[in-house]
Amino acid sequence: MKNNYYQPDIETADRKIIEKLQSKRLTEVVKRVYERVPLYRARMDEAGIKPEDINGVEDLGKLPFTSKQDLRDTYPYGMFAVPMEDVVRLHASSGTTGKQIVVGYTQNDLDNWGDIVARQLVAAGITKSDKVHVAYGYGLFTGGLGIAEGARRLGCTSIPVSSGNTARQLTIMQDFCSDAIACTPSYAMYLGESAAKAGIDTSKLPLRAGIFGAEPWTDEMRREIEKSLNIKAYDIYGLTEIMGPGVAYECSEQKGMHVNEDHFIIEILDPDTHLPVKDGEKGEIVFTCLTKEAFPLIRFRTKDIGTITHEKCKCGRTFVRMSKPMGRIDDMLIIRGVNVFPSQIETVLLQMNLSPNYQLIVDRKGVLDTLEVQVEITEGTFSDTISDISRLEHELADRLKSTLGIAAKTTFVAAGSIARSEGKAKRIIDRRN
Amino acid sequence: MFIKQLSIFVENRQGALSKIITMLSDSGVNMRAVSIADTQDFGILRVIVNDIDKALDTLKSKNVIVRANNVIGVELQDKPGSLSKVLGLLTDGGVNVEYMYAFVTPGNLNSAYLVLRARHNDKAEKILSENGIKMLSEEDIKNM
Known about the structure:
- The structure holds 2 protein chains of 2 kinds.
- Chain A contains 11 helices and 23 strands.
- By secondary structure, chain A is an alpha/beta fold.
- Chain B folds into 2 domains: about 5-70, VC0802-like (2-Layer Sandwich), CATH 3.30.2130.10; about 70-145, 2-Layer Sandwich (VC0802-like), CATH 3.30.2130.
- Chain B has helices spanning about 15-25, 50-60, 80-90, 120-130, 140-144, and strands at about 5-10, 30-40, 40-50, 65-75, 95-105, 110-120.
């Protein structure tokens, strides 16, 4: 199969060349932030580090971390490293888990952003003659305009439908002959279902690729989307603080996302020791921006848990590959000494076609931690006989045990009975303290 | 011949059952027979009603998880040995009963009615009908 590269020189460069470039750019960016961002100057002074102490990637560990709280404390423009006259765009994170933060881009930043998104588009087989249907929201959210930037750099046609109005999305997809679509995976699932309901035969549409990100999704969802929309689905990773979509991108191998290492350094750190873990081991994902001018972050702690691998990818790209984020450090529960992520439980529920509305109740009986997983019953899972429901409870318990490594009690509860706030269910009740 | 039964998921906590029964009574649905199967965490409320469509609409509109499923309604003479005969036929036919419950009506005090659900409902129905056991229709339920 033909390998599609947008910038083959760097995407398939020798590792030594990539590391040399990273070292050079790291030295430069550290110098810039020390001179221009008071927070970094103060942190480095405090740690007794001068820019000249940083001579390459091997010195990365000497640098202080940046946290989400730092961005809130310096809100709105305290982390900007260029004067406002050089800033051509602002974006903001939605702030569902706290106060919103604002990020800035120079013209160069936007061009670089476009390039890394274009790498994803090309890796997904999209060419200049294709039309990309962008159903991510356009606005302060980086999704819509980020993908559009990539389409512009590549020179393909973007269709800025933005989010919502599913009937219109389907009409445009058919009438404008969209070749690819970009949106959140959950919306892609919904589009697939809606197309089926509307009697649209997706195999007759030109649509052949989808680029999905901005929220966690599973391999089961990927298969579902690929089937219902009759496309190949690619996973794009990004976060507003670092750039937006395109920080890492998936090739046709679909085995992890290549991190755009000429623009970012990824580290996977042990949550306790803050030291790098081995390839394949889980840890906190930390990013350093190498080329960003307006909003360059050094060792930004994402609080996402993931893994990386340096193993050579069959696609020919030499950038390291990161896993999908497997959960949040904040959400991680330690039950009987075992790390448990709610996302693992979600995967099992989805595999068994159970309701995504669940709640974890962690308690302590004597000295032993207990975990109960309550799941809302659905019409599809309910039966008139106790034995059918018990069988399902047992199957769920068995699967959870093999996934989590600890036993959990499983209970079905009435539909709608799990409390929701702002549309999101409250997932965890920890009664141990 | 089958009749329709409503099966409703009820959490095992105070007020849960009463809430569902009130929804049914508010909508003017009359219950012919009621049974509850309970476990430690939840129960399944099983009811035979005079107006199944109305009951379903009412419960679904309030997001209650409910299913209408086929059960066998049997009319028995209200005297010793009637039930034993029916169960004997099923046992001989190799059919397992999942659950059953009984009710009587003021209109016909000579008869007792049995609601029965077998693991293999079709097979059970065939055995009973071949042996001339009187089974209830949806129409019978409406007219009780």
